[in-house]
Specification:
acid-thiol ligase activity, GMP Synthetase, Chain A, domain 3, alpha/beta, Rossmann fold, ATP-dep_AMP-bd_enzyme, ANL_N_sf, AMP-dep_synth/lig_dom, AMP-binding protein, 15 helices
Length: 498
């Protein structure tokens, strides 16, 4: 088991396996930890040769190639800041992230680059073909970066407006890797199948925590559940991380008994596991421990529920992960025990705020409560929880309007802005509704003429990624308003859900 050493190091030191041990497995073959280290050094040296300034942002828009797996270590080693972009995003979202981060370089594939218009990259942002970056050759030695220095910016949707960049230090990434590797009890003989996007905090942590344990990762871009089944057999995976919609799909797939029995560990994030899912996973994967987790990009993970407690407490979020202090806080700032309170996360996993967004940073990142052990800034999640007498936290609800669909946090406003960019509807409100497969499905309520729906659907398919596409359109002559003349979102949401 990985020891809980609280002293962080530069994140490019995290690949700690034996030199000849396997670090990465894909269709091209296997990389040892020596191969991985050489690739990190070679890419870092190439980046240094681009004459970028220290702290410049380097964006990557790639599927799970070997280069994509190397960049989270190589970019910080070169003294730069990595900005991974979800490969499922469309032009408008990519352009926003590039502009907001002020990226000095975008590394992507020619086919993806061709979808961008000339003005989609900010002034001074160069474009690099992913094949131009070497994975062998002379390389930079491991860095001596300050663990508190900025290493990455991960973009996550907010409840209002476009995605915001969460600033993560070397220490944030390092301690997150050590914490997860420790409580999951990862060992060098484990092989983690990496199906989550590397732009997602836990998707990237799959790389970092696996390598911190000296284990190997098998990155996978999949289309259907059967791709995952085949990959587990092909690479001999022992560990799989997923989100609830993926578990639904995997339970519907056909599994050879020998393949299902290979898995020793299932880890869930991005939404709660229902009792039905827990029962299904227990039955399908009898040799696997199931870990339920809750987290925020702003603080990485917050809680986990050990497998031994899952059956007895299926609705619980669990307890604080290593290095984290998690508490429920009442509106008056005192601790809430046995009653609803806002989940507040303090400790060294707390991010440095939102990139170039002091207003939203001030809302979410505030001083820790007086009774907290960890002083300094804490993340005030906006989620309501109850801390029970057993020390376990239970989720009550969200204070914002975020839609969580297929493991993605989706801003309703971003969907509404895309709709109102055309002339098909006068007004629009996006709402998340319960969906067994997706967690939440997306319904949009619109003021306008329903005969324009097909044109709107066609346009949105060009503007938004698949996971942001509305599943249902409900048209009204007028949308309700409150006493202030604003759209009555609560009434609209209540009408849709009911």
């Amino acid at each position: 088991m990985v020891p809980l050493d609280p002293v962080p190091m530069p994140i490019d030191h995290v690949a700690r396996g034996d030199r000849d041990a396997i670090a990465l497995v894909d269709r091209a073959g296997r990389w040892s930890f020596a191969d991985l280290e050489a690739a990190v050094g070679a890419v870092a040296r190439w980046l240094m040769a681009q004459r970028l300034n220290p702290g410049d942002r380097v964006a990557s828009w790639l599927p799970k190639t070997r280069l994509a797996c190397v960049l989270p270590l190589a970019v910080p080693r070169a003294g730069l800041v990595h900005v991974p972009i979800n490969p499922a995003l469309r032009r408008a979202q990519v352009a926003h992230i590039l502009a907001d981060s002020g990226a000095a370089l975008l590394i992507t594939q020619p086919t993806r680059a061709a979808t961008l218009a000339p003005g989609d990259r900010p002034s001074g942002c160069d474009l690099a073909d992913d094949t131009a970056l070497p994975l062998t050759g002379d390389g930079l030695r491991p860095s001596e970066a300050d663990p508190d220095a900025l290493a990455a910016i991960l973009y996550t949707s907010g409840s209002t407006g476009r995605p915001k960049g969460v600033m993560l230090s070397h220490a944030n990434l390092w301690l997150g890797a050590i914490a997860v590797a420790h409580y999951l009890k990862l060992e060098p003989n484990d092989r983690v199948l990496g199906v989550l996007p590397l732009s997602f905090d836990y998707g990237q942590n799959q790389l970092l925590s696996t390598w911190a344990a000296g284990a190997s990762v098998a990155p996978l871009d999949y289309l259907v559940a059967h791709d995952v089944v085949k990959a587990i057999e092909r690479v001999g995976a022992t560990t799989l991380a997923g989100v609830p919609p993926l578990w639904v799909q995997l339970l519907e797939a056909e599994w050879p008994e020998e393949t299902a029995a290979r898995l020793r560990r299932l880890t869930n994030s991005g939404g709660a596991l229902t009792p039905r899912l827990v029962t299904g996973l227990r039955g399908r994967f009898p040799c696997a421990d199931v870990y339920a987790m809750y987290g925020l990009t702003e603080a990485f993970r917050s809680t986990y529920l050990p497998p031994a407690l899952l059956d007895a407490h299926p609705q619980a979020m669990g307890r604080a992960i290593p290095f984290a202090e998690v508490m429920a806080v009442k509106p008056d700032g005192t601790r809430a025990l046995g009653e609803p309170g806002e989940l507040v996360h303090a400790g060294p996993l707390v991010a440095q705020g939102y990139w170039r967004d002091p207003e939203r940073t001030a809302v979410r990142f505030r001083p820790a409560p007086n009774f907290a052990t960890h002083r300094g800034m804490a993340v005030w999640s906006g989620d309501t929880v109850i801390e029970g007498e057993d020390g376990l936290f239970r989720f009550v609800g969200r204070d914002d309007e975020m839609i969580k669909s297929a493991g993605n946090r989706i801003s309703p406003l971003e969907i509404e802005e895309a709709i109102l960019a055309g002339e098909e509807a006068r007004e629009a409100v996006a709402v998340g509704v319960p969906d067994e497969r997706l967690g939440q499905g997306i319904v949009v309520v619109l003021a306008g003429d329903a005969t324009h729906e097909e044109a709107l659907r066609t346009r949105l398919r060009m503007m938004l990624p698949s996971f942001m596409q509305p599943g249902r359109y409900e048209w009204r002559d007028e949308l309700p308003r409150n006493a202030n003349g604003k759209l009555d979102r609560a009434a609209i949401r209540a009408g849709v859900v009911s």
